[in-house]
Amino acid sequence: MIPLIKSIYNNLYDRRKFVCFVLIVVGLFFLGQKILNKNPNVDKDDHQYVNSIYMSDGRIYNNYLNDKEKAMYDFMMDRIKRGKRVTQQTPEEYGCKDYQECYSLMSSAVNAIWIDHPELLSFASWDAQYKFDTGILTFRIRKSFKLPFMDDIGEMIINYKINQIVKETEGMSDKEKIKYVYNWIGQNATYDTIFTGDSKNQTIYNVFVNHNAVCAGFAKTAQVIFQRLGINSYIVRGSTTGSHMWNIVEVDGKYYYFDSTVAACIKENHYMYYDGLKQDKFDGYILSNENWYPKLEKNNLYSNDELKIVN
Q: Which of 23, 52, 208, 251 is most buried (CB neighbours < 10 A)?
């Protein structure tokens, strides 16, 4: 009888320990959210709000999309925010006259979302498939991770690291902050050569947590950091030797290209390491939507001495 009582007691004791552990973890999670996820730029009531990492101004949505493109953008963002991976409707239910118009509207909307919302942690890509026999168009969101709590954990980790960057750049000029961000990305992430269309390597999560990405991840990372540092900047889509994403930064009312992918690809002591900050190295860069951006400065923002370039 005594061994049975001991067994019951031990089981209850173990369960209490487990319950206490769970309560502690949950408590730390909510405390972390309260402490870390504070961003003065964020307005949770804003139409464009997603999370506390970054506050989108919806610049592309507000200024460059027509009504149908905005409606598709809103539809996609609703699905992304709510984690709705698959939607099956007729083109008319999507608000299109046919499936071809839907494809076009979806493409325009995604291009705008990529630029307006670098803070999206798990949205990797999308696809759409139309079946002629049923008249149904399937819209599918591809996510880089499937567990919902990963977004929350990622948000806290990223906010913690951005807060560190803010502290480390206190008192710096804008030029110094921009160079710091360039170096931070170069020192904390590498270019991911294993590329797939729905890979996590296109998000800021991969840069901050897994320390590798492709150009989209680097450009988005720079954008969210710049906002917290008070640097006006833009995400740019275009091409060099292939499709590419980078940034534009503003310093003293002038605008310059900023390509941190170069920093992530080249070792710091290599003579080409700072090419992503030199305006005379951007001649082969082509903007996809030139009218979306201000006129660029052709002179270099930094001198060779400031970048410690060895010729």
A: 208
Report yes or no on 39 lying in a domain: no
Asked if residue 241 and residue 101 are part of one domain, the reply reads no
Tens-place pLDDT, residues 230-263? 999 999 999 998 899 999 999 999 999 999 999 9
For residues 214 and 134, state if they share a domain: no
- From CA 32, how far away is CA 54, in angstroms rounded? 17
* Structure tokens given for 159: 């906010």
Q: Which domain-ending residue is among 112, 143, 174?
A: 143
188 with 85, same domain? no
Backbone φ and ψ for 292, nearest 5 degrees, come out as -80, -10
- Residue appearing with tokens 């005594």: 2
What is the three-class DSSP state of 169? coil
Q: The domain that contains 302 carries what CATH number?
A: 3.10.620.30
Spatial strand order in the sheet of 243-251 = 254-258, 243-251, 233-239, 286-287
The per-residue pLDDT for range 22-54, each reduced to its tens digit, is 344 344 344 454 456 678 889 999 999 999 999
Tens of pLDDT, residues 7-16? 666 666 656 6
- Rounded Cα distance between 283 and 109, Å, is 28
pTM of the model: 0.87
The token pair that represents 196 in the structure block: 């797939």
Cβ neighbourhood burial of 103 (10 Å; 0-12, 13-18, 19+) = middle
Q: How far apart are CA 253 and CA 280, in angstroms?
A: 19
Contact 121, 151 (CB under 8 A): yes
124 touches 198 (CB < 8 A): yes
CA angle 56, 58, 59 (to 5 degrees): 115
